[in-house]
Design goal:
Pfam families: APH. This is Aminoglycoside phosphotransferase family protein. It comes from Kitasatospora purpeofusca. The chain starts with 11 loop residues before the first helix and ends with a helix. Helix 4 crosses helix 7 and helix 7 runs antiparallel to helix 8. The protein has a five-stranded antiparallel β-sheet, sandwiched between helices. The longest helix has 22 residues. Helix content is about 40%, strand content about 15%. It has eight helices and ten strands. By secondary structure, it is an alpha+beta fold. The chain has two domains: about 90 residues, Phosphorylase Kinase, domain 1 (2-Layer Sandwich), CATH 3.30.200.20; about 200 residues, Aminoglycoside phosphotransferase (APH), C-terminal lobe (Aminoglycoside 3'-phosphotransferase, Chain: A, domain 2, Alpha-Beta Complex). The protein is globular, with a radius of gyration of 19 Å.
């Protein structure tokens, strides 16, 4: 499945070729697909390793970012995060940087894996608070650590508006776009964020939260790692059940202005996802639509 115009094609044969070139001691291990997101393809390597190969040259920049910063962040966090064990370089079979990580057992956060939803929300809040408290260690909001989600909403108004317009042309899209656009525009009138900039994971959706024995065990995929204001960090909470969302809100002690800005970020990311991936990635579009419908439902209750 190709998602981007400049996507680099890769398969199990290419993955094995990279191993033969760079880590021959792993080349005989079983290689099997382990999922694919919007930015990377994954292959399980034996029982204990995971290969992660970026889809595009831009995604490859995030590979180096993870390799640099994840080992420095890990000691400060109360959960497992990906541990790079090989910095892959471009090869004959694949022209981009890539990584091998230690495999982390766990199930994607969801109704069948989370045993106590409020406890899950509170545990996620502890992890987020811990990440936001990590010293910047010389990092700054620049280059690959300056993703838009760590800044202000107003700078994104043009492209978000274009995504709304594009969604309006999708035949059969059953979604109250007018109400969602109102929530976005209302947040633009709020004060811009201020205060201390912090480390941001940037994409704490359920597929990046792993559960073991009913409890939150690990956070994965730090490709959106950045430094900035924390409002957008809270936006994936609308992917979680109301009980988890409420417990997170209370544990984080978020005020209404921060919550409204977080909701606007949730709208922006999901609307752009529907617009960009409508014809190529139905599963991801379904996740975006579920988030937007949860936002509309919650907005009607408050």
């Amino acid at each position: 499945m190709t998602l981007h115009e400049n996507e680099i094609r890769v398969d199990e044969a290419a993955a094995r070729s990279l191993l033969r070139e760079q880590r021959p001691e792993w080349a005989a291990l079983p290689v099997s697909p382990a999922g694919a997101g919007t930015d990377n393809r994954m292959y399980r390597l034996g029982d204990r390793l995971l290969m992660r190969l970026p889809r595009t040259p831009d995604n490859a920049k995030a590979v180096r970012k993870e390799q640099t910063w994840l080992p420095r962040l890990a000691p400060h966090l109360p959960c497992r995060i990906p541990e790079p064990v090989h910095r892959g370089t471009p090869g004959a079979a694949f022209p981009l940087a890539w990584s091998v990580y230690r495999w982390i057992d766990g199930d994607e956060a969801g109704p069948g894996s989370v045993s106590d939803r409020p406890a899950f929300g509170a545990d996620l809040a502890v992890i987020v608070q811990s990440l936001h408290a990590v010293p910047l260690m010389g990092a700054a909001r620049q280059g690959e650590l300056s993703r838009y989600r760590g800044g202000g909403l107003r700078a994104c108004d043009q492209w978000v508006g274009e995504c709304f317009d594009d969604c309006g042309t999708i035949e059969g899209l059953d979604l109250d776009l007018e109400r969602l656009r109102h929530l976005w525009q209302s947040a633009l009138a709020l004060p811009e964020p201020s205060g201390r900039q912090v480390w941001l994971h940037g994409d704490l959706k359920p597929s990046n939260l792993l559960v073991r024995q009913g409890k939150l065990h690990a956070v994965i995929d730090f490709g959106c790692l950045s430094v900035g204001f924390p409002d957008a960090e809270h936006s994936p909470l609308w992917d979680l059940p109301p009980g988890a969302r409420q417990a997170y809100w209370e544990a984080m002690s978020l005020d209404e202005v921060t919550w409204s800005r977080a909701r606007a970020w949730a709208v922006a990311v999901a609307v752009s996802g529907v617009s960009y991936y409508w014809r190529t990635y139905p599963r991801f579009v379904g996740e975006c639509l579920s988030r937007l419908r949860a936002i509309l439902e919650a907005a009607g209750e408050r």
